[in-house]
Amino acid sequence: NHLVSNCKFYCQKSSSKVRICQVLSSQEFGKNVQIQGWVRSVRSQKEILFLHVNDGSTLQSLQVVANAELYKRCLTFGSAVKISGTLEKSPHKKQLVELQADSIQVIGDCNPVDYPFKIKERHSLEYIRQFPHLRCRTKTFGSLLRIRSEASTAIQSFFKDNGFVQIHTPVITSNDCEGAGELFQIEPAGREQGPSEDEPHFFSVPAFLTVSGQLHLEVMTGAFPCVYTFGPTFRAENSQSRRHLAEFYMVEAEIAFTHSLEDITTVMEDLFKTATECILSRCSEDVELYHKYVAPGHMDRLNHMLKNKFKVISYTEAVDVLKHSQQNFAFRPEWGCDLQTEHEKYLVQHCGNIPLFVINYPYNLKPFYARNNEDKPQHTAAAVDLLVPGIGELCGGSLREERLELLKSRLEKTGLKDTYQWYLELRQFGSVPHGGFGMGFERYLQCILGVDNIKDVIPFPRFSHSCVL
Ligand code: 4AD
């Protein structure tokens, strides 16, 4: 268990206080220890009380054996307890150790009648979603949170190991990187009516929550070969879909000195595979629980993705495939139109359920920064989306337009030239060809765990008409 081998536990100041993940693999029978956690099950057999206690450090619970007469009435499912006792070799095959309790203190009791989770019941993700303030107490969501934490570390380690410098890009910004108009504008509370002469914008200019840290990362490619950022991102999408949130986490990377889209797709594929392997080895029990109860058979699908080289198809070929398919799409595929989720899912299936890079999108579909391929008869940009089974788009990226004149003329056409004067300047002082991508962290978790709804992989989901807590 990596938690045991890698961690210094702060509660160890008193040597007898331990985490359950440490105890479960311990062979120190006879040792006196103290644990703190929550009761997962209670069963009494004559004078003996058997408890399972979990403290969030691992999926498994520790069996505690106690005097039924003393503790039967005060210990209920969900209550918080502090238990001191002696570690004993367990007579049961499935567990190495159990705790013979000397004293049990109830720190916080739990009324089983009102508590929304019932002992020994496996509640669905939809059910526990109704209790955002309590769902971390369920076994399933506890696993998700440990996996999410480990996934975040695995991603950061990938970038560190590959020489990327982490940049803390701002949450508050004056630009609309994607130009899609899905911005949340911010003003101090009470100024919702907008600026007036007496009360101008707080920042003097309209300011927004970031939709992407890309432009700030691009600034950094003027001084660093590889940079990344990983943080909350906001989009005012009026969508109730299973893959959109108003607040999500995005991993973004930017690579300098490259003219090749393949350099970008190589990093995307390596990031996906390396981080996933790391999570599978560090959180195997938690991932297994997900694959068993939430997405049966998903481990095979995931292994299939990890074993195979990701495929590549051009947007033009993809539209051809869609047009020649026998599918009854709600949206008719047409060159020049965005691929819909139904198209993306079909394309991945068509390519054997291996993640698929779709490259060279119509120039007019992509934001001002995408590099012009200057091709004919169809005019495309050096942009790429990574599509994955069951979800569709996981990553979006491109080479960035580094040629000053082309960039100027595009910004002029879109009326953005004045706003992006500073961006044009980047191309004037030691500019280098560069490109990058962004990966939605929640969609990544959905993909590796086989979770259907994005709201089930983030602690506190925010989406239109919902900002609970
Ligand atoms: O494709 P997108 O819009 O790309 C960008 O923002 C680029 N500026 C990134 C870059 O090149 N640095 O978003 C990237 C990814 C999507 O592929 C998707 O996985 C995720 O971010 N994403 C969302 N995830 C959840 N909810 C939403 N509303 C999302 N919008 C995008």
How does this model look, in words?
- The chain is of the alpha+beta class.
- The protein is built from 14 helices and 16 strands.
- It has helices at 2-6, 20-24, 68-71, 125-129, 139-161, 214-220, 261-282, 284-293, 298-307, 315-324, 341-350, 404-413, 421-426, 441-449, and strands spanning 32-45, 48-54, 62-67, 80-89, 97-108, 165-166, 172-173, 185-186, 207-209, 226-234, 247-256, 311-314, 356-362, 380-388, 392-399, 434-440.
- The strands form three sheets. An eight-stranded mixed beta sheet has the order 6-10-11-16-15-14-13-12, with helices on both faces. The chain has a five-stranded mixed beta barrel with strand order 1-2-3-5-4.
- A hairpin with a 3-residue loop joins strand 14 and strand 15 (392-399).
- Helix 5 (139-161) crosses helix 7 and helix 5 (139-161) packs across helix 8 (284-293).
- The longest helix has 23 residues, at 139-161.
- The radius of gyration is 26 Å and the shape is elongated.
- The protein starts with a helix and ends in a 20-residue tail after the last helix.
- 4-amino-1,4-dioxobutan-2-aminium adenosine-5'-monophosphate binds at residues 177-178, 212, 214, 235, 237, 244-245, 248, 250, 252, 393-397, 436-440, 442-443.
